[in-house]
């Protein structure tokens, strides 16, 4: 049986954006070919609901992050390869893969097929749209503009038990991801704004849950001392999706939880400042992006220079966020 390889190594938000495209490739080829996904170990669990997809994972960093996957790829004799990553590392894998058909968003070597203008059409630079142009270049059906992230019964019961423990069963609740990676502190809204917003939401009868991982823990503990419940490191990726399905809406920074919650089908109000929302907003949530226009945004600086006073997010008021939520009829 011929084999197809999809390469999508990370990061988490990018993997979630690409999941509908991976599903399309899997469904198109699975009847006649064996379809594999090469990804990082920490993302393999996201694909448990993809029944016809075989998973191979290697670490994204370190000395073995290139040599070992290349050796594995060559040993499998793939005929068709889709590079949904587009990094220097993945291009090297493609170049040495031995595959006859090699699809990617770059032009020329190592790809045999690519969409015009690297998939950018009518100024649409979001990766979801560009990956659809890549599917078109392969004569495949494009992915629907709706997120896809499966979560089964096991995740539902974990979440239900946690909610019962916190006396939240039957409560209307909202999720807030206030943090960011340690490298990207410039993505964070100021704590006073989060507290103001959470206080108003609780006054409306909503339970506020602060979500995140290890890097968010200290911030969430600090916020929860004032209001809300700290759920740092309480859930796996799929459990967070299961939790999101029970929330009325969520408020996040530009972060991986933004994409997870959107993929669960829950409304997400996303706060953008130093990064370009047009490139990385959650799929299906474009109208819920919140920004404050300043000349230096997007700057892509992990730390805001002192003289700029973080105005892209400081001047984005809680009142503006609340007005957007009310306009959607969710308050």
TrEMBL record:
CDD domains from the entry?
GT9_LPS_heptosyltransferase
Stretches assigned to coiled coil: none
Which terms under GO biological process does the entry name?
A: lipopolysaccharide core region biosynthetic process
- Which top-rank group of organisms is this from? Bacteria
> What is the recorded name of this protein?
Glycosyl transferase family protein
- Which GO CC annotations does the UniProt entry carry? cytosol
Which controlled-vocabulary keywords does the entry list?
Glycosyltransferase, Transferase
InterPro entries given in the database record = Glyco_trans_9, LPS_LOS_Heptosyltrfase
- Signal sequence span is none
Q: Which Pfam families match?
A: Glyco_transf_9
Cite the GO molecular-function annotations of the record: ADP-heptose-lipopolysaccharide heptosyltransferase activity
Known Gene3D superfamilies for this protein? Glycogen Phosphorylase B
């Amino acid at each position: 049986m011929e084999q197809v390889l999809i390469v999508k190594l990370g990061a988490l938000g990018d993997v979630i954006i690409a999941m509908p495209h991976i599903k399309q490739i899997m469904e198109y080829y699975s009847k006649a070919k064996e379809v594999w996904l090469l990804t990082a170990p920490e993302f393999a669990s996201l694909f448990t609901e993809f029944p016809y997809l075989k998973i191979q994972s290697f670490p994204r960093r370190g000395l073995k992050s290139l040599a070992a996957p290349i050796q594995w790829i060559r040993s499998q004799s793939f005929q068709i390869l889709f590079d949904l990553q587009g990094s220097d590392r993945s291009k090297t894998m493609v170049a040495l893969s031995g595959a006859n058909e090699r699809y990617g968003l770059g032009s020329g070597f190592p790809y045999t097929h690519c969409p015009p203008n690297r998939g950018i059409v009518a100024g649409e630079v979001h990766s979801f749209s560009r990956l659809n142009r890549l599917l078109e270049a392969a004569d495949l059906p494009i992915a629907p503009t709706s997120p896809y992230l499966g979560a089964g019964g096991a995740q539902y019961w974990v979440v239900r038990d946690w909610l019962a423990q916190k006396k939240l069963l039957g409560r209307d609740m909202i999720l807030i991801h206030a943090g960011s990676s340690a490298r990207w502190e410039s993505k964070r809204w100021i704590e006073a704004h989060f507290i103001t917003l959470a206080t108003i939401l609780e006054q409306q009868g909503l339970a506020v849950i602060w979500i995140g991982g290890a890097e968010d823990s200290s911030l969430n503990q600090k916020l929860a001392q004032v209001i809300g419940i700290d759920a740092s490191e309480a859930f796996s990726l799929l459990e967070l999706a299961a939790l999101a399905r029970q929330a009325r809406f969520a408020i996040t920074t530009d972060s991986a939880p933004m994409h997870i919650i959107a993929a669960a089908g829950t409304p997400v109000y996303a706060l953008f400042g130093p990064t370009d929302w047009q490139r990385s907003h959650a799929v299906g949530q474009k109208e819920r992006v919140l920004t404050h226009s300043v000349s230096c945004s997007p700057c892509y600086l992990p730390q805001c220079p002192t003289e700029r006073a973080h105005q892209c997010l400081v001047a984005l008021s809680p009142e503006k966020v609340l007005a957007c939520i009310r306009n959607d009829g969710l308050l």
